[in-house]
Amino acid sequence: MSESEQDRVIGRYGFDEIAANHLEAWPNSYPERDYVTHFEIPEFTCLCPRSGFPDFATIIVDYVPDKQVVELKSLKLYINAYRNRQISHEASTNAILDDLVALLSPRWMRVVGDFTVRGNIKTVITTEYANPEYHGPRPELKRFLPAIG
Amino acid sequence: MSESEQDRVIGRYGFDEIAANHLEAWPNSYPERDYVTHFEIPEFTCLCPRSGFPDFATIIVDYVPDKQVVELKSLKLYINAYRNRQISHEASTNAILDDLVALLSPRWMRVVGDFTVRGNIKTVITTEYANPEYHGPRPELKRFLPAIG
Amino acid sequence: MSESEQDRVIGRYGFDEIAANHLEAWPNSYPERDYVTHFEIPEFTCLCPRSGFPDFATIIVDYVPDKQVVELKSLKLYINAYRNRQISHEASTNAILDDLVALLSPRWMRVVGDFTVRGNIKTVITTEYANPEYHGPRPELKRFLPAIG
Amino acid sequence: MSESEQDRVIGRYGFDEIAANHLEAWPNSYPERDYVTHFEIPEFTCLCPRSGFPDFATIIVDYVPDKQVVELKSLKLYINAYRNRQISHEASTNAILDDLVALLSPRWMRVVGDFTVRGNIKTVITTEYANPEYHGPRPELKRFLPAIG
Amino acid sequence: MSESEQDRVIGRYGFDEIAANHLEAWPNSYPERDYVTHFEIPEFTCLCPRSGFPDFATIIVDYVPDKQVVELKSLKLYINAYRNRQISHEASTNAILDDLVALLSPRWMRVVGDFTVRGNIKTVITTEYANPEYHGPRPELKRFLPAIG
Amino acid sequence: MSESEQDRVIGRYGFDEIAANHLEAWPNSYPERDYVTHFEIPEFTCLCPRSGFPDFATIIVDYVPDKQVVELKSLKLYINAYRNRQISHEASTNAILDDLVALLSPRWMRVVGDFTVRGNIKTVITTEYANPEYHGPRPELKRFLPAIG
Amino acid sequence: MSESEQDRVIGRYGFDEIAANHLEAWPNSYPERDYVTHFEIPEFTCLCPRSGFPDFATIIVDYVPDKQVVELKSLKLYINAYRNRQISHEASTNAILDDLVALLSPRWMRVVGDFTVRGNIKTVITTEYANPEYHGPRPELKRFLPAIG
Amino acid sequence: MSESEQDRVIGRYGFDEIAANHLEAWPNSYPERDYVTHFEIPEFTCLCPRSGFPDFATIIVDYVPDKQVVELKSLKLYINAYRNRQISHEASTNAILDDLVALLSPRWMRVVGDFTVRGNIKTVITTEYANPEYHGPRPELKRFLPAIG
Amino acid sequence: MSESEQDRVIGRYGFDEIAANHLEAWPNSYPERDYVTHFEIPEFTCLCPRSGFPDFATIIVDYVPDKQVVELKSLKLYINAYRNRQISHEASTNAILDDLVALLSPRWMRVVGDFTVRGNIKTVITTEYANPEYHGPRPELKRFLPAIG
Amino acid sequence: MSESEQDRVIGRYGFDEIAANHLEAWPNSYPERDYVTHFEIPEFTCLCPRSGFPDFATIIVDYVPDKQVVELKSLKLYINAYRNRQISHEASTNAILDDLVALLSPRWMRVVGDFTVRGNIKTVITTEYANPEYHGPRPELKRFLPAIG
Ligand SMILES: [Ca+2]
Ligand SMILES: [Ca+2]
Ligand SMILES: [Ca+2]
Ligand SMILES: [Ca+2]
Ligand SMILES: [Ca+2]
Ligand SMILES: [Ca+2]
Ligand SMILES: [Ca+2]
Ligand SMILES: [Ca+2]
Ligand SMILES: [Ca+2]
Ligand SMILES: [Ca+2]
Ligand SMILES: [Ca+2]
Ligand SMILES: [Ca+2]
Ligand SMILES: [Ca+2]
Ligand SMILES: [Ca+2]
Ligand SMILES: [Ca+2]
Ligand SMILES: [Ca+2]
User: Fold this and answer.
1) Residue in I48, I66, I98, I99 annotated catalytic
2) Which residues form the active site (chains A, B, C, D, E, F, G, H, I, J) (predicted)?
């Protein structure tokens, strides 16, 4: 492949930031309310555990924070870190839920992994956590994805 | 019909894989949670039981696994195997539910067969199974299909 | 209007089939389940009872069969037969419900008549029947129609 | 402005029909059922009470008739009559509800006024009436409007 | 079919208007310009010449008037008159072109018949007339544009 | 119709501004370039010359200014002034072109009137002016593009 | 797989009609005009020449007939006959062009094979024939337009 | 940057109106009904508290007024005033709720801040207030936003 | 407005980066080809020259680089710098063209300013530069295409 | 991160196939025609040359083959191989063109890299090659068309 001189002057700080990252929590400024934060992260990619071929997904997180909220840049770098991991659709979606629940102890959280088609089959994984004492809103997932076809 | 030499060098391993396939179950890595797996399989085709003419559908499966999940490649080949069967819309949709419930004993499962128009009428079949002891999420089917017209 | 010779060689079997048709019921192969059949019939037309001008609609039927299902070709011809009838929006939608309930004794049925604009007003009629002993799914009508404009 | 001779030969019967109109009720042919009639009326316009500048809306009516249904032509002319009235978004939407409830004594009715943007803000008013003894369907408003942007 | 008393009080003036109609031309108020008029007529229906079963189409007309324009109500009634004719897709589209060219002697005209699916095949017929001396715009067929938003 | 006290406190300055308005031209700051200005004005309404019933349209203007550009507020008020005029689709679209060409002497201009359906027929009028010495861009009519996403 | 008794009563006439079919030509009623016929055939399926796994496509045909037009039912059955053939994307699209040109000797024809994704890659093949003496319209490939509304 | 003379003649009244504005309440003309007012305000912008870079959002407000409604122009100017504030997604959405609840004492209110993507992540904040004695409609948020991609 | 402690810890580096920025050019690695770079920048905002109220636009740039390409981060900061400028729609779109042409001396460039509605009128400005010796592609403005599906 | 035993049994053959792959050419079965092959490859990802952070794009290839066509599986693996390369938008798009032209010596080819937003700016690169003796179709870039319905 032909490549220009310019493109050989490459930087590596992105690799370093992803490797050094830890999910970070910040104090919730509005703990008195059960408000919902919804994230859509369309650039998730990982590797198939069986083959090593790439998989792609949009990750959607909805949660009601308790004492803490997730810091956005650390969440982005956390997602970036899946790029070179071999992990199944079910495992990555559930692992994101596990990791965010462990960090934040939210009142309620749902994670959706909306994966692209493999072997003519599209897969979407939805997994949810709730503090047993929580009775606030659990908004339906309105917008799974555009329709096939 | 004219055809090039190249196209005559045909392979048959797809036929063999479809014929030899059995639906396969794998252990569920997250049995402690009632999470939902959603599949969309847009390339279903079978034959009309009355005429033998082809029918086309998107099959949509939602389920909450218990001890086992379905292996994706075996599901694809299972769907491929309907291509030469003569079977009605109701029968194919219910048979897919029967076969997956028999394999997986899921907590809950719904199968939708979203067929293309025949005789100016579009048909969608929705059929569902639930373990009587299951009380977790049964997500509404959000995205039946794009609107006519 | 100019017309070619070819187009004068006309056939009449469609008229005969529509005139001779009766809605026909077939046995339900899966009576043990409360599954839902959804039909969309976009080519309904009838005549306005006040003027005789044509009306157009999409008819949408959802039902849970009990012992019988409707045969599709007879349903198509039944719908065709409205072409020359003068009947209001409410009357046609309710009449289709009456006729299908009388034929099938379903567990539950809903008929929607989604008519095109007349006098700058779009009308959609929704009417429903349920056997009092039925407690299964009554799926919400997801997809009324595309938005105006 | 230049104008052709033809366009000067103007008629006035529309003005007369709008001025003479009264909302008209007809007997409900299916009073034994709680069926829903849905209207969309995209060509509503009135005048801002503060300035006199034009406002535009789509009016959406859903109702379950009791003994009477509204006659469509009289409804169209009733809507036309708002063209020269100065009335707020809240007042017009609630007034349409009041007038139709007074005419029809429906079992249930909802009126939505979906107005176009003014001052960078889009406003939608939703107002509802129910006979206290009514326990039938109150269909959710599926299709508020197309998304911004 | 059950029917209410009300729906038996039927009117016939629509039949009479359609039967008595002739396509009507009016003077073009702007003959000095080559401007384009585009019509979309989504409620065309006729009968298949081979079977008598109904066909449905949207008819689209674009033309550059010369001395005359078509009167809209007479065009609507002309289109209504196809409802009971047995005529092929090609013949109806070309006949509409012939009739409008004969009436108007336009500088340029194109008629499209955009028919619904029959036998799994959708058909669109496009046919065009131009006065040999005409050198003005012949706009490509594309839907002009949805309204803002 | 019931109405609150508040809504009776009405203002009239909008009427006055519309009545007093004249289309206004401003100097073009970039006369050395053939750049295109595109306007979409979705809230046009006038009255049918035959009946007095309301008509609705989106007006689309594209032009290449020469020495002057149109002032936007005066254009809005000019469009508002059609609300009480009885004028045909062809006449209003061509009149807007005439008036803007008279005001601005542009290098090139096109006006489109995209009217809502009347009598089941949608009408779009396209009319164009060019200075004979102009040889710059005449962009095809297409909606520029939705924002990303 | 479980199957009801009813679904075992299968018919075979579709197989027979497909096997016996020959593409059939009819006289063109409007040979004096260069009009365009556009077909969309969304239910094409064949088998991959390398593996035997199914492929799916929409076939789009545009042509300007000369003396003959293709009969629609024979075209549908011709397309059905690809279901059990092993043939590449390029070969099937070009073969359809070859066969229709051989049958009809059209003035101009274009065939598009718009295949679904395989190996994460979507493929669309476009191939065209023109009689060297033909100078009429060769419409660009674009979806004609959605219906109004 | 080059700039014309005209563009240097700038006005400042917008700055003054925004600076002088206070959210203003008006009496609710229909306090006897629990009706819902829905606002969409697509042109919200503020500054990131960490960096000072701009953020963009659509703000969506739904509320059931009690004795008072918010005056629209004062709401627009209130939203304009965020342009130069450094404030987080959570803080701005909750602050709008706080300020409107303090002004209006509504029966129920929900505010959504639908922010554009930052660091590949889209964020939507939903926060809600209800008077404990309120038992009327709390309409689901139907239309969060268009889908990614 | 209520605000949490956390949100008071604000940073200013964004202000500094925007203030210090200069548009920056990099060498074009592929000067031997006339390739086209297309940018969409949906988060442009400036201030109205007459009032000081905010305006919003998507800026779209297409260009064929010669010896240099624009560095993306400096382009983003350049666009950010319009936030506090009072400038008209025509002036900002033409100024962006002027500044980029001065920086890059491209073979061809087009800038579009697609502004949101003001006074019920949407405005889109399109302005273009070409080196007189350039004869390569000048792609029509159309949104490239949505992703598959 | 929690992970199940199952997900630790990982395979590596995908890595090996990507590493060993070479773009492969096959004979063109229809060299006598200038037909167009269009590919859409939505799962392209590489790494930013400046930072190492991931970039995402859809790659679109259109070409008219001469003696050879590209083998699809080798094209997929070639695209996969960009996952760990640090390369700019311009360089990757032009490199794909260079590599495919070197392999196939096509009559004409165009490659588009449609990248996701970075720093609020979306970038699309379009680059093209033509054999100087080629005079056949060079289809404009437009998405072919959605399937019917
Ligand atoms: Ca906070
Ligand atoms: Ca599609
Ligand atoms: Ca697992
Ligand atoms: Ca059955
Ligand atoms: Ca719209
Ligand atoms: Ca009635
Ligand atoms: Ca959008
Ligand atoms: Ca006229
Ligand atoms: Ca200026
Ligand atoms: Ca014919
Ligand atoms: Ca539409
Ligand atoms: Ca009020
Ligand atoms: Ca998309
Ligand atoms: Ca470069
Ligand atoms: Ca080949
Ligand atoms: Ca559609």
Assistant:
1) I48
2) 48, 55
